[in-house]
Design goal:
Helix content is 26%, strand content 31%. The chain has helices at 2-50, 71-77, 85-88, 104-109; strands spanning 82-83, 94-95, 127-131, 138-140, 144-146, 158-161, 167-174, 176-183, 189-196, 201-208, 215-223, 229-237, 243-245, 247-251. The longest helix is centred in the first third of the chain and has 49 residues, at 2-50. This is Serine/threonine protein kinase.
């Protein structure tokens, strides 16, 4: 029996030797296919990053107001592919859609909830100073005029009366008025009031022109910040020796 087994193995040896080249060739083909597959995978992996700038990967780009987008998603979602830098250099591919960044100017242009715009400065209303002999001032009673006075009155003149009940009036358009006269120990009181265009009282006041010494150009009655409109001032002498008018200041 041992001799028989040796004879069988010896008889098969020429067949095994004859099949060896085919076996080696098959192994070589398999190895070559594996190398080709590995090289193809490496090439495809390189193409995935070749469409990015140097050092970049398919990472999500975070932009305020824009959803995060990756390269793999943008390549399939782009409706109109744009040739990439690789395609123009000899390769093929498409560029991801451009990510719209919010302009810095538009972000800063929106007003902040904590900051309110500064109010505009309103310039003071212009005022017109009228002398006691200005047109439109109406004197009722026995008034006289004193001119070339060396006491510091406006334009060195005044209208005056010594009779109680004498009055003056003036109609103006604006937002207010100042009644300017002189103060003196011999001057007394007067009733002054303002009415609107309908005759309705706006302000009424009894004023005094008494003082320890003569004081020119004193504002004894004033009304301001009225709605722009047409008003009339009227003043009546009530007491004292003298009652006079030096100027009226109309506020526009």
């Amino acid at each position: 029996m041992p001799g028989t087994r040796g004879t069988r193995w010896t008889s098969r040896l020429p067949q095994a030797v004859a099949a060896t080249p085919w076996l080696l060739a098959s192994i070589g083909v398999i190895v070559l296919l594996l190398l080709l597959v590995k090289a193809l995978v490496a090439v495809l992996g390189h193409d995935r990053y070749a469409t990015h700038d140097a050092g970049s990967r398919s990472e999500a780009v975070m932009v305020p107001g824009v959803p995060a987008v990756t390269e793999s998603a943008s390549a399939s979602a782009s409706p109109s592919p744009t040739p990439t830098r690789r395609a123009t250099g000899g390769g093929t591919g498409v560029a991801p859609p451009a990510i719209v960044r919010t302009p810095a100017a538009s972000r800063s242009a929106s007003p902040s909830a904590s900051v309110s715009p500064s109010p505009l400065a309103i310039p003071p209303s212009p005022a017109t100073l009228l002398n006691d002999d200005a047109p439109g001032i109406t004197y009722r009673g026995r008034w006289a005029v004193s001119r070339n006075r060396p006491f510091g009155d406006h334009r060195d003149d005044v209208h005056y009366t010594i009779h109680d009940g004498d009055s003056f009036s003036f109609t103006f358009t604006g937002t207010g008025l100042d009644y300017i006269t002189s103060r003196d120990p011999e001057y007394g009181d007067a009733d002054v009031w303002i009415v609107d265009s309908g005759g309705r009282p706006v302000k009424q006041q009894r004023v005094s022109a008494r003082a320890q010494r003569y004081q020119p150009q004193q504002t004894v009655f004033s009304v301001q910040d009225l709605p722009v409109g047409r008003y009339t001032i009227r003043a009546v002498k009530r007491s004292g020796v003298y009652f006079q008018v030096d100027a009226l200041r109309v506020r526009g």
